[in-house]
Amino acid sequence: MQLFLDEVTSKERVLEDMNKMNAFGGGDRLTGTRGQRDYCAWLKDEIRAMGIDVVSKEYRFDRWEAQEWSLTVDGQPVAVSSPFHYSGLTGEAGVTAKLFAVCNNPLDFQRARGKIAVCHIRNLSAISSKVAFNKRRSLPADLEVEKSYRGPVSTSFVKTLLTFWSLRLAGVKGMICVWEDMSDAMVDGQCLNFILGYLKVPVLWVNETEGKKVFAAAKAKKSATLRLTGRIERDAVTESFHAVIKGTGGTDEAIIVNTHTDGCNFSEENGGIGMLAMMRWFKAHPAKRNLIFVFVTGHFRLPVFRVGIMTSNQATGRWLKDNKEMWNGGRYKAVAGCSVEHLGCTEWKDVNGVYTRTNDIDTELVYTGNKHLDDVYYKAVQGRTLLRTMTLRGHNTMHFGEGQPLSKKHIPEIALVTAPDYLCSVDYSGKSHMDKFNLDLMYEQIHTFVRCVEILDGMTKKEIGRSQPYSLGLGKLK
């Protein structure tokens, strides 16, 4: 593949920028943290160094932060995989009570009143991926969506929704969620679940190995001490910002390129690094249309920042609501969008119970807003040497990633949202999961999105077309 981006941004520069991002903190770049704020300040400095103005808007919210956590069962320490984010906090002494096994139904939670509930969170297998996904096409052509879209992220999103309401109503003193049918290494450090409101009840995640000890103790009616200390920072500051590279065509039409800035490892979220490289290219080679680069906050605190009540609504919706003149015909009229998330991801899966690299490319899931944009994407990937990609249509009101708000506003988009099982995992070693990073892949993906913008820029608004509505029913997986 001819890497034309070398003219303004080398592969080495992308790696340097990645290391800079990681230096601001791995799991410490969640919404409103010092790490995220420093990362955003650096991004803005880099953009201004190109001679491009930045417009920023601050938001304030109550920021939850876990500081220490531990679990003791029948007097013996039990290893904790991670805290359940945005759950309740305890004092230094924690909470002590008898254990009670629940099966994720409201009646069991009621019987656990005054106790510490223990809950099975088993890897998804019964729910067909046809409910959430509708494949357009792929390269290679025989690439398929998993029959049941498994892993920590999807499993936690589906299986803890009921937990939210049950915990708030039942009066339990705490809860232990046990990952099952997933290796201990896969579930370590998972920063989940971030789509729920504040639970108020303290909750910890443990892996299946440790969970067997906990369930045995619950069956024997033993007690446990659950400790999750932290703080709520009132009126914490975070920001979204955007920058415009003016087009040469004298038009108010624009293409939006967006991502989010909060995250917990190299992949979540490195879209801003990719966008910096894109901006350096388009600063040197302006498009005819205006290019609006949008960096949003709130992806990891969606109940506060999303617009609307649906859990799939993403944080870019807040930016669209607060900046209508930038896309709805006030100053600019958006005719298309490109969402850039989770670049350079290798695939890691459980193989015979061992978490290991199974492919140098995790499947690049890409939503395309209509058939014309699907064609644009496959034209843009021509010549790539590293390619394992699948395009999707938004389906049954589900559209994952920050391209979703563009689609909701009828802005046809091409949105990358690769979803490795480590996507939301904090690397407690401090290395930000860089052992799972593929620099060559990220560099090719950046080229792809430069090409997407260039091809879109050469099309008329009519040729780009309208954003298709969600498909309904059972989707195609192959």
List its traits.
single chain, globular, 15-stranded mixed sheet, 17 strands, two-stranded antiparallel ribbon, 478 residues, alpha/beta
Would you give an account of this structure?
By secondary structure, this protein is an alpha/beta fold. Helix content is 28%, strand content 26%. The strands form two sheets. The protein has a 15-stranded mixed beta sheet that branches. A two-stranded antiparallel sheet has the order 13-14. The protein is globular and about 75 Å long. The two termini are 27 Å apart. The relative contact order is 0.17.
Q: Helix amount, in percent?
A: 25-40%
Mean pLDDT figure? 93
Distance between the termini: 27 Å
Summing up helix and strand content along with how strands pair, one would put the structural category as alpha/beta
Query: Given the C-alpha coordinates, what overall shape results?
Result: globular
Radius of gyration, CA atoms, in whole angstroms = 22 Å
Described by strand count, sense and barrel closure, the largest sheet is: 15 strands, mixed
The unreliable regions are none
- Given the structure, what is the number of helices? 14
Number of strands: 17
Strand content: 25-35%
Outline the fold blueprint:
Blueprint: H1 11-23, H2 34-49, E1 55-73, E2 76-78, E3 82-83, E4 95-102, H3 106-111, E5 116-122, E6 135-139, H4 152-159, H5 161-170, E7 174-180, H6 184-187, E8 203-206, H7 208-219, E9 223-245, E10 253-260, H8 271-284, E11 290-296, H9 302-305, H10 316-322, E12 333-339, E13 347-351, E14 354-359, E15 364-368, H11 371-380, E16 389-392, H12 404-408, E17 413-416, H13 439-457, H14 461-464
Parallel strand pairs: 4-5, 5-7, 7-8, 10-11, 10-12, 12-17, 15-16
Antiparallel strand pairs: 1-2, 1-9, 3-8, 4-9, 6-16, 9-11, 13-14, 15-17
Helix pairs in contact: 8-13, 11-13
